[in-house]
Structures are given as structure tokens and as C-alpha cells.
């Protein structure tokens, strides 16, 4: 018998627990030559802001041991462009599309949520209160329980779509933020965004990235991410989408056992464009091999 | 449509200081590739180095299903790649990017190569020669030992003029000084350029001043190679507006007059 892979993130039904991490999968079409993106439980698209953004100066990416630092700076064509040019494509896709949003002020987050609320083809909003690469907003909201709750409330009031709050690992007590946004009405949490880091070119004696600091992702961050999911799971009842360094199914299963209901594949797609599908196939194989009929039995199972 | 696949290494050898030639069996990619495109190469199976490395398609033989790379060892990734042996496999993603715009058959064209920038231009000259174009290659490097591909260009009936910084071969000076003396490129339908950024910038200025169309192949640090991560942004001016384009998916080849150099 085929195991049941279906999971729910708020009112969003996912055929399986695998999605992509925002900013690592474009808007979807970029990866269609390599995998059937409609087989994924959802795709999460690049972060969107109210106004178009040019992003940060180059170099915007540098490799570090088993990881990468990026300082893209939320380059995107703006929400109106997304609604006009990408939403019709999203509507045709036979999978959920999660739109990731970021603002400079609480009002901007609410505005974005309101604009996207009635757009067909969008299944959920992922609210980025944790981007380390923008000066205003971003991380500032994600590092304080009070402002994180404020953003959550404003978005909650502006939309009927499931609201997923994306948490930053760059805080002392991630569970406290998780708890605050749960209380403020979040339907789910994404854990984690990138870790603030930097690299210096010893030949030029200058920071490598054009924006000096960047966000660390990839296998190097996995232990931090698994820990964060573990701590958040102990504090909240709402589902968690786990991410941070997932390269294969074994990594994804660690997140699920730590408490993630779904997982997102990020940096791994750069190395293996088929990574997300291989994660899905590997999870399914694991369930079959271990006689588990429902993925939900594994969620948080490591907590005993 | 681009592919991801394991390609068998057929040959690998050093051709110049720090410079390696590698031949790979990859019929699907060889069949689809056009000059100026690149492959995103996994240099190791481990997680460090993690990312793929972009390398231009140097030559293809479609009948044999073979593609060749020519690369300079500059860091961890290219060093590991150079150590591969015939019979090993290398995972390739490609062909990626938009290639050079080909002229009308029989046109007069100029090709300007600086250092390892010669790599993609051999495939281009292959195609131009098939189109019976009249080709002049301006080839520059720091010294005689570092001059790449001059034999290949000559074999394809291109006229080759060489400049070396130390004068150990051809003209003493850089390729731009050489072009300034050599007037032929001013009458071309297109000038194709690949080399270090400052060199491409100066050639682009020469072309603009002479009102000659040109194309340059740009380099940026790449994450995905397929247009998804936006790490490879380059500034391009079009109709008076400057926008970010993706070197991997919108390029790496861009019209020389549209590039905003900084
Ligand atoms: C479209 C394109 C085509 C290229 N074609 C060739 C070619 O045919 N032959 C050749 O010798 N070189 C080519 N390069 C440059 C080549 O990609 C770099 O030399 C190589 O990535 C260096 O890797 P490394 O691990 O040895 O060096 P490291 O310094 O260890 O690399 C560290 C990181 O920086 C990135 N990186 C470093 N330098 C560059 C660069 N100049 N461009 C893009 N990413 C870089 C690497 O991908 C890696 O993520 C090309 C670059 C681009 C963008
Ligand atoms: C190039 C790049 C761009 C990203 N852009 C965004 C973004 O726009 N919004 C966001 O919430 N997270 C963004 N992220 C963070 C990822 O979605 C993810 O949380 C993080 O990379 C950890 O997962 P990974 O290690 O599997 O990549 C980006 C990450 C990378 C590498
Ligand atoms: S390398 Fe990812 S968009 Fe160009």
C-alpha cells in the first residue's frame, strides 16, 4: 500500500510534505526542464515587495565550507508585476504556490497581504520577517517578539489565506518569537531563514560580498536548523515547515522527526536541480521500508 | 532544453600554465549547444566545494557526441576538476545561457580573446568558419606560454594576430593597443569579445567610438546557473533604462554597448 504523504499547513492541503525554499527556485519555470514541479506538495517563490527592488551590489554570492553566503537583497519585480505576469501561471499549476512577502513597515506587510488575498493561484503567504540582507524591515521584525506579533496580526487581518511566518535563527530565543506569532494568529511557521555571516578576501583584504554581510545557507547550517525546529516544536501547536541545509531525504527526515510537518529544499537545488523530487522520493521510500502508512506518524517522533 | 547528466571523461591534459583541456562524452549537450553557452560543472561529489562551477563550452563534435572544456585552475573547484582521469564521470548541467548572435553567412567578423577568454571563442570560430565568414582573431595573453588556441584558430582559416604583454610572441603590448593599430575590425559586421573585465570594457569603448556592433561574454559569481537565485546580476542599459539581467540566463553574452561597466 502507498503511504499517505498528505499534510496540512493551515487550510492549505499539500499532497506531500515537500516544497522549495523562497529565493532558491525562482518562480518555478526555471526548474521545469529538470523536474515535474507539479509533483511537489507546493512551490515557494522568490520574495516579493510592494515596489520593485534592484537588490544589492555584486558579488552577491560566495561559497564557504559546505555552504553559501548570499546577499541578493530581495531583488524582485514588485507585487503588481507578480500578480499580472506570474499569477496566471501559478493558477495553471496543479500544485500549491506559496508567495513569500517582505515589507519595510507593518503597513507594507498588510498591504501586500491584502493585494494578494484575492488573487487566484496563490495558496498561502509566507511572511519573511527574517531577511538579513535588507536594511529596513526584514530581520528587525523577526528578532523581537512584539514586532513579530505585530506584523503577524496585521497580515492575519488583511488576508484569509494561510499565513506562514518565516523565523530567523539570528535570535537568542527562537521559541519565544514562535510562540508570540502563534498567539498573534499565524497558521504555520517556516524555520529557518539564513544565518547572518561574512567572508573576507585575504588577497584584497576586503569583504567578499558587495553588501559586506550575507545569509548563510546549505549543509553547514543544518544542525542549527534542526535544533531550531526542535525548540519551536516544543513551544507551539501550529505546523512547522523545516528548512536549512536539506540536501537529501535523510536530511528532510531529520527535520520531520524534530517536528516539521513539511520541509523546504533550498540551496540543494543549485547543486542538484532534481533535489526536491529526490527528497520526496526518498521520504516515500523510507515510509514504505519502515511500514509507516502516514507521514504524520513521524512528525516530532524524536521527541518521544 | 538543458539537461543534467553524468558525462564520461575521455581525455584531460594540461595545455599551458595552470590551463587544462578536458573532453567529455555528452551527446545530448553537444547536440543542443550553441557558441557562447556554458555548462555548470560539479567539480566534486562532496559537499565542499558545494556549488557547481560555470565553464564555457570550448568545442563540440556533434557527430562524436563530445564536448570540450578549457579551464584555468584558480581555486578549489577547478583544481579538483583538473585531477579527473579518463573514465571518471563529471556531472554536467547544460547547455545553459544565451550564446553569441551569429552574423549573415560570409560576413567579415572580428574575435577578441584575452587569456582564458579564448575558451568559448573556439566554438564560435568553428561555427563562423562553417558559415564561410572572414575571421580575424585578436589574441592576447601575458606571455608566449600563455597564448591559447592560436593553432586551432589558424586551422579554421581565421587570421590570427597576437599580442603579449612581454613581447615574447607577436606584438608587444595588450590586445587593445594591437586593435588600435590594426584597422580591420572597424569594417566588421560583428566583433565578439571574451576576456578579463577591464579588457572587455576597453574593447567595448573602442567599438562604441567606431560605431561597430559587438558582443561580450560576462562573468559573475553564480549559484544556480539557471536563472533562479539572482546572484549573477549584471547591469544592462536598454532604451535608456538600466536594469539587472541574469548573466546565467539572460546572458552570459550581451551587446557590448548595453553593458554598464562599473
Ligand atoms: C559563464 C561563465 C563561463 C566561464 N567559462 C570559463 C572557462 O571556459 N574557462 C575558465 O577557466 N573559466 C571560466 N569561467 C570562470 C570560472 O567559472 C571560475 O574560474 C571558477 O568558477 C573558479 O572556481 P574555483 O573553485 O577554482 O575557484 P574559487 O575561487 O575557489 O571559487 C569560489 C567561488 O566563486 C565562484 N567563482 C570564482 N570565480 C568566478 C568567476 N570568475 N566567475 C564565476 N564564478 C566564479 C565559484 O563558482 C565558486 O562558487 C567562466 C565563468 C562564467 C560565469
Ligand atoms: C540565494 C538565496 C535567496 C534567498 N531569498 C529568500 C527570499 O527572498 N525570501 C526568504 O524568505 N528567504 C530567502 N532565502 C532563504 C531560503 O528560503 C532558506 O530559508 C535558506 O536558504 C535555508 O535553506 P537552505 O539551506 O536549504 O538553502 C534565500 C536563500 C538563498 C540561498
Ligand atoms: S546563477 Fe542563479 S540566477 Fe544566475
TrEMBL record, chain A:
Which reaction(s) does the protein catalyse, per the Swiss-Prot or TrEMBL entry? (S)-dihydroorotate + NAD(+) = orotate + NADH + H(+); (S)-dihydroorotate + A = orotate + AH2
Among the GO biological process terms of this entry, one is:
'de novo' UMP biosynthetic process
EC primary class: oxidoreductase
Where does it reside? Answer: Cytoplasm
Which EC number(s) does the record attach to this protein? 1.3.-.-
For this UniProt record, give its keywords in alphabetical order, as a comma-separated list: Cytoplasm, Flavoprotein, FMN, NAD, Oxidoreductase, Pyrimidine biosynthesis
Residues annotated for substrate binding in this entry: 46, 70-74, 128, 193-194
Residue numbers annotated as active site: 131
Cofactor (UniProt): FMN
Q: How is the cofactor bound?
A: Binds 1 FMN per subunit.
* Residues engaged in binding FMN: 22, 46-47, 100, 128, 166, 192, 218, 244-245, 266-267
Give the function comment from the record.
Answer: Catalyzes the conversion of dihydroorotate to orotate with NAD(+) as electron acceptor.
Q: Which family does it belong to?
A: Belongs to the dihydroorotate dehydrogenase family. Type 1 subfamily.
According to UniProt, the name of this protein is Dihydroorotate dehydrogenase
Organism listed in the record: Desulforamulus ferrireducens
UniProtKB/TrEMBL annotation, chain B:
Give the GO biological process terms.
'de novo' UMP biosynthetic process
Q: Which Pfam families does the record match to this protein? A: DHODB_Fe-S_bind, FAD_binding_6, NAD_binding_1
Show where the FAD-binding FR-type domain sits.
2-102
* Cofactor binding description: Binds 1 FAD per subunit.
Sites where the protein binds [2Fe-2S] cluster: 224, 229, 232, 248
Which annotated residues bind FAD? 53-56, 70-72, 77-78
Question: Which keywords does this chain's UniProt record carry?
Answer: 2Fe-2S, Electron transport, FAD, Flavoprotein, Iron, Iron-sulfur, Metal-binding, Pyrimidine biosynthesis, Transport
The pathway where this protein functions is: Pyrimidine metabolism; UMP biosynthesis via de novo pathway; orotate from (S)-dihydroorotate (NAD(+) route): step 1/1
Question: Which GO molecular function, any one, fits this protein according to its record?
Answer: 2 iron, 2 sulfur cluster binding
Q: Does the keyword Thylakoid apply?
A: no
| Segments forming a coiled coil | none
What is its quaternary makeup?
Heterotetramer of 2 PyrK and 2 PyrD type B subunits.
Which family does this protein fall into?
Belongs to the PyrK family.
Report what the protein is called: Dihydroorotate dehydrogenase B (NAD(+)), electron transfer subunit
Species of origin reads: Desulforamulus ferrireducens
Amino acid at each position: 500500500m502507498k503511504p499517505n504523504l498528505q499534510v496540512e499547513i493551515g487550510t492549505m492541503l499539500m499532497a506531500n510534505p515537500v516544497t522549495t525554499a523562497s529565493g532558491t527556485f525562482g518562480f518555478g519555470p526555471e526548474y521545469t526542464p529538470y523536474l515535474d514541479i507539479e509533483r511537489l506538495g507546493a512551490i515557494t517563490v522568490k520574495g516579493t515587495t510592494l515596489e520593485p527592488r534592484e537588490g544589492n551590489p555584486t558579488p552577491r554570492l560566495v561559497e564557504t565550507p559546505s555552504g553559501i553566503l548570499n546577499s541578493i537583497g530581495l531583488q524582485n519585480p514588485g507585487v503588481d508585476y507578480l500578480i499580472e505576469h506570474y499569477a496566471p501561471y501559478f493558477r495553471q499549476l496543479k500544485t500549491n504556490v506559496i508567495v513569500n512577502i517582505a515589507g519595510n513597515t507593518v503597513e507594507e506587510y498588510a498591504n501586500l497581504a491584502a493585494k494578494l488575498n484575492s488573487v487566484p493561484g496563490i495558496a498561502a503567504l509566507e511572511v519573511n520577517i527574517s531577511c538579513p540582507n535588507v536594511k529596513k524591515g526584514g530581520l528587525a521584525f523577526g528578532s523581537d517578539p512584539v514586532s513579530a506579533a505585530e506584523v503577524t496580526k496585521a497580515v492575519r487581518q488583511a488576508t484569509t489565506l494561510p499565513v506562514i511566518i518565516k523565523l530567523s535563527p539570528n535570535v537568542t530565543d527562537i521559541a519565544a518569537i514562535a510562540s508570540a506569532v502563534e498567539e498573534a494568529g499565524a497558521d504555520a511557521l517556516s524555520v529557518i531563514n539564513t544565518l547572518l555571516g561574512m567572508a573576507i578576501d585575504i588577497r584584497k583584504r576586503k569583504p567578499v560580498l558587495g553588501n559586506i554581510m550575507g545569509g548563510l545557507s546549505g549543509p553547514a547550517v543544518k544542525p542549527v536548523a534542526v535544533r531550531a525546529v526542535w525548540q519551536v516544536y516544543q513551544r507551539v501547536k501550529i505546523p512547522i515547515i523545516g528548512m536549512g541545509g536539506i540536501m537529501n531525504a535523510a536530511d528532510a527526515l531529520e527535520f520531520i522527526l524534530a517536528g516539521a510537518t513539511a520541509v523546504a529544499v533550498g540551496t540543494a537545488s543549485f547543486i542538484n536541480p532534481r533535489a526536491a523530487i529526490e527528497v520526496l522520493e526518498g521520504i516515500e521510500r523510507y515510509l514504505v521500508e519502515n511500514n509507516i502508512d502516514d507521514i504524520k506518524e513521524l512528525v516530532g517522533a524524536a521527541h518521544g | 532544453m538543458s539537461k543534467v547528466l553524468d558525462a564520461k571523461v575521455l581525455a584531460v591534459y594540461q595545455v599551458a600554465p595552470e590551463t587544462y583541456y578536458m573532453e567529455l562524452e555528452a551527446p545530448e549537450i553537444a547536440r543542443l549547444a550553441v557558441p557562447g553557452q556554458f555548462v555548470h560543472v560539479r567539480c566534486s561529489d562532496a559537499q565542499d566545494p558545494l556549488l557547481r562551477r560555470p565553464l564555457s563550452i570550448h568545442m563540440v563534435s556533434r557527430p562524436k557526441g563530445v564536448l570540450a572544456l578549457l579551464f584555468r585552475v584558480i581555486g578549489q573547484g577547478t583544481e579538483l576538476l583538473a585531477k579527473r582521469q579518463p573514465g571518471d564521470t563529471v556531472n554536467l548541467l547544460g547547455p545553459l545561457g544565451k550564446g553569441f548572435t551569429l552574423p549573415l553567412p560570409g560576413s567579415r567578423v572580428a574575435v577578441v580573446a584575452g587569456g582564458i577568454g579564448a575558451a568559448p571563442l573556439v566554438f564560435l570560430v568553428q561555427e563562423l568558419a562553417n558559415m564561410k565568414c572572414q575571421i580575424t582573431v585578436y589574441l592576447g595573453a601575458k606571455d608566449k606560454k600563455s597564448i591559447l588556441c592560436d593553432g586551432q584558430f589558424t586551422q579554421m582559416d581565421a587570421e590570427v594576430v597576437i599580442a603579449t604583454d612581454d613581447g615574447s610572441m607577436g606584438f608587444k603590448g595588450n590586445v587593445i593597443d594591437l586593435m588600435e593599430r590594426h584597422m580591420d575590425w572597424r569594417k566588421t559586421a560583428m566583433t565578439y569579445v571574451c576576456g578579463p573585465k577591464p579588457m572587455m570594457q576597453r574593447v567595448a569603448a573602442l567599438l562604441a567610438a567606431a560605431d561597430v556592433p559587438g558582443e561580450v561574454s560576462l562573468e559573475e559569481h553564480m549559484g544556480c546557473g539557471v536563472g533562479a537565485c539572482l546572484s549573477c546580476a549584471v547591469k544592462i542599459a536598454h532604451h535608456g533604462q538600466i536594469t539587472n539581467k541574469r548573466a546565467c540566463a539572460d546572458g552570459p553574452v550581451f551587446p557590448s554597448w548595453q553593458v554598464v561597466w562599473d
